[in-house]
Amino acid sequence: METTQYITVVLTATEGKTITNATHSILAKIIYLGVNDSPDNYFEISDEEADTIRTNRLVLENETLYT
Q1: Long-range residue pairs from 32-37, CB within 8 A, at least 24 positions apart, any chain
Q2: What is the pLDDT of residues 12-53, one digit of tens each?
Q3: Is 4 inside a domain boundary?
Q4: Does any domain span residue 3?
């Protein structure tokens, strides 16, 4: 029998913050990193900024769908 142990790196946002990446394609409170991912690829923004990004995405999606 083979036993393998894995270490999972978990990023948890500070209160009032949201974790994102450089392109803002990810907005989350908790992120579980994959084997080839790095915490250096992420940073925190305010929840208000994250809400603005989400709202802008919805507007853009609606414009794309209905034009």
Answers
A1: 32/8, 33/8, 33/9, 37/9
A2: 999 999 999 999 999 999 999 998 999 999 999 999 999 999
A3: no
A4: no
The span from the CA of 64 to the CA of 28, in Å, is: 24
Tell me which residue has tokens 């790095």.
38
**Is residue 56 in some structural domain?**
yes
**Residue of 59, 30, 57 lying closest to 44 (CA atoms):** 30
pLDDT category at 67 given cuts 50, 70, 90 is low
Boundaries of domain holding 20: 10-65
Q: Per the structure, how many domains does the chain have?
A: 1
* Beta strands 30-32; 10-12: pairing state: antiparallel
